[in-house]
Amino acid sequence: MEEPMAELRRIVMRAQDKWTDTGIPRVAMVRAEACADQVYQPMLHLVLQGTKTLSVGEEATRYTAGSYFLVPVDVPATGQIHNDTADHPYLAVSLTLDPGVIATLLIDEGKTPSAPQNACFQGVLASDEMLDAWVR
After folding, report:
1. What pTM was estimated for this model as a whole?
2. Domain residue spans in the chain?
3. Which of 45, 47, 83, 131 keeps 20 to 30 A from 96, CA to CA?
4. Is 4-135 a CATH 2.60.120.10 domain?
5. Measured between alpha carbons, how far is 122 from 72 in angstroms, rounded to an integer?
């Protein structure tokens, strides 16, 4: 059986050189050689290959293959992709989050939504369980 990261990379390599919808609601594949400044919508973004630096305000964070970051609210950011070669492009998968659904879940659990902390932009190493869920 193929390792989850290798399987995800193989799938995403078929994407065009841009954000590509997958047919699964809110899930996109990313294959890119460059990154534009943009307003990032709420999302969970898993880096599969390459490295990305995301700058939010004065804080810059570098994400490497196998790590992910969470964007809890719309936020203007500057992104930079670092490639080894053209044959080794930046690859990622992204799940756009619905803030209304998340707020409802928090309220249903008796938790009050709070202002996001900068720590949410720190890279977190994806667990085997998370990678398996992405493959499915």
Report:
1. 0.84
2. 4-135
3. 83
4. yes
5. 12
